[in-house]
Amino acid sequence: MSNLIKISAPHDHKPERNYVFQVLFNDWMGLTYEVEWVDATSTILTSAGRQMVIPDLFFFSLPEVVEWSDLQVPTELHWLDPIDEHGDRIPSFFGSVWENERSEDVLALGCDVFAHAFFHLTRWEEIGLKHLDRFGRIDESALLALQHGVHYMPSLDMLFHRLSSTMETFLRLKVKDQHPYSIKVTHDVDHLRRFDTVKKWVNAIGGDLLLRKKPWLVFKTTWEFISIQLKLRKDNYDSFDALMDRSESLGLKSHFYFIPSHAGEEDVRYDIRSRVAQETIHSIQKRGHTVGVHGSFASAWDKEVFKQELARLHACTPEVSEGRMHYLRFKNPHTWQMWEEAGLQRDSSLGLSSDIGFRCGTARPYRVFDLQNRKTLSLIEEPLIVMEVALIRKYPKAEEGLNAARQVVDMCERYGGQLVYLWHPENLDHPHWGQYAHLYEAILSYAAKEQA
């Protein structure tokens, strides 16, 4: 068996086509390839004297330079036959059948796999969305996968699994999955301490009365504040050691993302220069876990502010290569450009804020594409799959939330990739979110059991 593919591809949109070839064949399958650019309306893969023909249902109709904000997003959803080896039907937006015609040496597909991959990975549908929520994020209800209710399925991973299996058998290629199932545990550090000042105690009891409307909580809150001041117990939000203990017990590492704010700035939760912040960062790294950047609300659309924040975190530790934007604020391709220019290696901002699931159609880490400049970047996107805030808001009944999370975990394990899991440290012992803290352990234990 070989691991070399010869590709005959239409000669238009070369940067975009090359990007998809690189991700699917090289990064994900571990194959090498040679491309010949030809005047054609389909892409032909050749190996072992056989050919696989993949129709061009997307790029052929586009001008060479595309205004993505004006481009019509596909509307129809098709379910490919046959059902795969796992008993799942694969959703497709570019083609209604998997196989059109087959002979001994030629297999013609009816699905444009490359268009499906480009659609999901580049997030070009998000550029044209005009409606934003109160945090300046896109209205997720307008996303195609959410409209059709298939965001619980990693449709690209499912399609990739079928493609790689078909290439292995029909083209006699030696395909090795470069991204087997794994777990990445992440924690966005939005708050360091709940009761390190009297002002925070006053705000907390105000929340008990006005927001939570539970006057009896005032006594509990006050006792917690006093106990912490007398050093009888840890602060409610100081769960860092417990989180690292649990990750270590499963052979995992925790990734903590800090907001590099200074006191007095917009929406500041803590000062990165504070003794508590410095000691927490050093404690995490001493135990071999990872510290990353959590770009502030203000830095989301401002490259210079983001660079300043990253420099602040570098002053605490030079070992910063990954992270996630606060509130998952993402603008395409601005955010990726900003992270690339800052020299960061991995971003994990692309998750859903309204639900759990696969915003990018995949759980696999992948290099990103700058649609504005038509080039592949070195930055790797690690899509966020499960975030506790979105999970609990969507499923306020814990058992329903756990079942939904298990389904998503099963999909990650079944089709390969990385389960990126987010739980905020302050939400393990919080007036509202704390009642769901047992879900953190339940989901992580289930995911780790699947991995084992």
Number of domains as seen in the coordinates: 3
- In CATH terms, the superfamily of the largest domain is Glycoside hydrolase/deacetylase
What is the CA-atom radius of gyration, in angstroms?
24 Å
- The whole-number mean of residue pLDDT values reads 94
Named CATH architecture of the largest domain:
Alpha-Beta Barrel
* CATH third-tier fold name of the largest domain: TIM Barrel
Q: Gap between N and C termini, in Å?
A: 30 Å
Strand order of the largest sheet: 2-1-3-4-8-7
Main β-sheet description: 6 strands, mixed
Structural class by SSE content: alpha/beta
List the helices and strands and how they pair.
Blueprint: E1 4-10, H1 14-28, E2 32-38, E3 42-47, E4 50-55, E5 78-80, E6 90-92, E7 99-102, E8 106-109, H2 113-122, H3 144-147, H4 155-170, E9 182-189, H5 198-211, H6 217-229, H7 240-249, E10 254-258, H8 275-286, E11 290-293, H9 303-316, E12 322-323, H10 334-341, E13 346-347, E14 366-370, E15 375-381, E16 386-387, H11 388-394, H12 398-415, E17 418-422, H13 437-451
Parallel strand pairs: 1-2, 4-8, 9-10, 9-17, 10-11, 12-13, 13-15, 16-17
Antiparallel strand pairs: 1-3, 3-4, 5-6, 7-8, 14-15
Helix pairs in contact: 2-4, 5-6, 12-13
